[in-house]
Amino acid sequence: MAHRRRVEYTPGWDCHGLPIELKALEKSQGSDLGPVEIRKSARNLASNTVLKQMESFRSYGVMGDWDRRWTTMDAAFEIRQLRLFQQMVKKGLIYRKFKPVYWSPSSGTALAEAELEYRDDHISHAAWIRFPITEEWRKLPQFESLQKDVPGQLYAIIWTTTPWTLPANRAIAIEDNLEYCIVRYGDDALLVAKSRLDTLVSKIDAEGVQILGTFEGSQLTSLKYINRLRGKDAPLQPIIHADFVSADSGSGLVHLAPGHGFDDYEACRKLGIPVAAPIDDQGKFTSDAFPDSPELLQSAPSVNEGGGRNVLDLLKPHGDVLRVERYQHKYPYDWRTKKPVVIRATEQWFADVGSIKQEALAALNDVRFIPESGRKRLESFVQGRSEWCISRQRAWGVPIPSLYDEKGSAVMNDEVVEHIISVIQERGTQAWWSDAPDDEAWIPSSLRGNGKYRRGTDTMDVWFDSGSSWTMMPGRADIYLEGSDQHRGWFQSSLLTRIAAGTQADNNFEKGAPFKQLITHGFTLDQAGKKMSKSLGNIIEPQQVMDGTLLPPIKRKKGNAAPQGQPAYDAMGPDALRLWAASSDYTHDVAIGVPVLSAIHTALIKYRTMVKMLLGSVHESARTTPLTATDHIAILQLQDTMQEVGKAFDNYEFYKGFAALNKWVTNDLSAFYLEALKDRLYCGDGGGVIEPLLTGLLRMLTPVTPLLVEEAWDHRPEWMKADSSSSHPFHQLYNDPVIEPGRLTRDLTALRRDIPVLMSVHGGVKSCLELARGDKVVGSSLQSSVSIRVSDARIQKVLESYADELESMFVVSSVDINTDLPSEPAWSYTREFEVSGIKAAVVALPPKHDKCPRCWRYVAPKEDTLCGRCEDVVANQHVVN
Prior knowledge:
This protein is of the alpha/beta class. The chain folds into four domains: 9-105 and 341-388 and 395-400 and 458-521, 3-Layer(aba) Sandwich (Rossmann fold); 111-338, Valyl/Leucyl/Isoleucyl-tRNA synthetase, editing domain (Isoleucyl-tRNA Synthetase, domain 2, Alpha-Beta Complex); 594-717, Isoleucyl-tRNA Synthetase, Domain 1, CATH 1.10.730; 749-848, 2-Layer Sandwich (hypothetical protein PF0899 fold). The chain contains 25 helices and 30 strands. Strand 29 and strand 30 form a beta hairpin. The chain starts with 11 loop residues before the first strand and ends with a helix.
């Protein structure tokens, strides 16, 4: 906070993606829109939403260069994004592959990990299934001793939570070093891991099974089996080794469907086992799922809705379904539609993350994370990723600049991408969909005459859009701020695209992460601690906080009702919204509701009351009036608080700054200084340090409650408005002196050393007087004199050095230190306290003199007579008049 730095905030909006496209489709009311119409509708919706959100942000008191706002659907931004994509193509980081991805049947597109949410209450119908092993097993020497013991069929047993993937089964995995056994089951035999035999027996009610032989997994990889779902001419399928097979779950044998599982795919790819995924974009089985009678599987609405049951019904007549059970487990859902996804092999575009992973991780070394736990979270996501599926099967987005030949093979190289970008610069991305399919303007000259080419229809992952936003900055951003879910999303995509671009030999490019600091916040909860959601109806809109509709009606006197047609609520305004945000520990989930906002409202009223009091008490003459010890103490307390608040703000720990500010306002400013200053303001010279305290308070409030600060500045006294050297709090340097150093005449080092003693005694005096006030002996503290009883010479010396100011400091009529007490006072109260661990005491006694009718201090020589100070003031006023 010590240095002034100009902050340039140009607001930007992420406008592409599935949520807007789905809303655009909803508005079409069932009309069958093509890509061009979808894009027009989505752009219109996004444009209107940007304007509405912009007005909302401005109403919150957010300052920015709103006229220069940008969006990811701007033509200039789309070109920046395509240029970034082109750089990755040049480095060989972009490629197309047929492999499993998360697929959302409800959205009809591939999804990235960041677009998933996991539910722990998903119910699957898990099944124990047997696959017949071919009779060739009898010819293998390791099984020679079992021939006579197995008159029937040998089966491999698997367990799966997704029976709908069984038509895509292409192998069974075992672990070479696990121990397996073959057990007699009727005339047949079952192959299972020995560690899972008891579980299998209990599941299929097969008590009394006999172990015929045990084998290491490595002895089983020469076996072949048949998947009946592949039809009458089903080919033989292998049993293979896979490291991920566990002895602690299932049967110890794992059904592999390389088109529906990431681990399955990798295990099969190494051995050249083909990939199959016989479901379509809507999650329905294709005719390839069961070639003999496709209709038997295609009757299900989707694989997640009856598809698994249909598969099991095909296997039951063969006796291959040993058991079906309800199984609750964690499962991925589409975070937009809230419906389950599937893993499905499709042709998609990928970005190679593996080759830049270590550079990306190294770039995080000089990034500051708030909270620090965010570092491990982001690092773990980057470390666990090797590929990024960047293509989406939607219309609303930036097109992936690729051409396809007559065979459907993709053609993408630097020349193709450069040519496509040049056409987009001329015609815009909308033309990618609206131009005629045979428009050769999109085909580079080197390809013309070599067959027909068509434009692709895939769009880029919306995270690639937002991940390109760093291109709008000349260097690295000071701060990226978002929720904890963005470690999988925007934080990661920004880092990866930045590192990918940074591999280019560009001397003007600032290498490293796009952010210097990364701040992660939690999510908003209702007052009961539940996550806000539309389905629960517990969402609170910012406008509700500002207009006061969340708080109970304010108490109004009879005849002072709210104007007709207006709600009888106490509107809180944007300052309340900002103060709630500043007071919350955003590193965790944050609750909001009537109790929380009531406390915020109280704090805001306290600030407002305090500012009004200071504005009403400040006098121009105070600028030249000598300062007392109490004034010096108030300045030191202010400086300490400003330093603490400034440090908290510098560290983005606004809630700590809020707590420090409240403590100062309550304990130091209100209960100590202003209480001690009242006599001087009302009846003395009107001096003090009100103006510096006001300056410091406004500086601390400026980033949090700017409207209150602006209003206070508008209502400052005319003599302050006439002072051209007095700048607006928004323009002041936070650490500039609040008071001219030359006005501080005390030894501040010695005073700072004495403050703990004075504050301890002050607290003792107040506590003692509360005893008298509780017995209704005194009302005002001026109706007393106090005697300080201390045994420590150092403490006594400190108090004696301030003896002439203790009365005003403690707001009593007189103060004695270790003097003899009156023998029979009308009343007395004693309160013990400690000063730096040393015991002391305060004795409250009746005042020694009479009440001055002007200042109300009990220091007058007799009743209804002015005290000496007031006598002089009144006499001087007569002279002036």
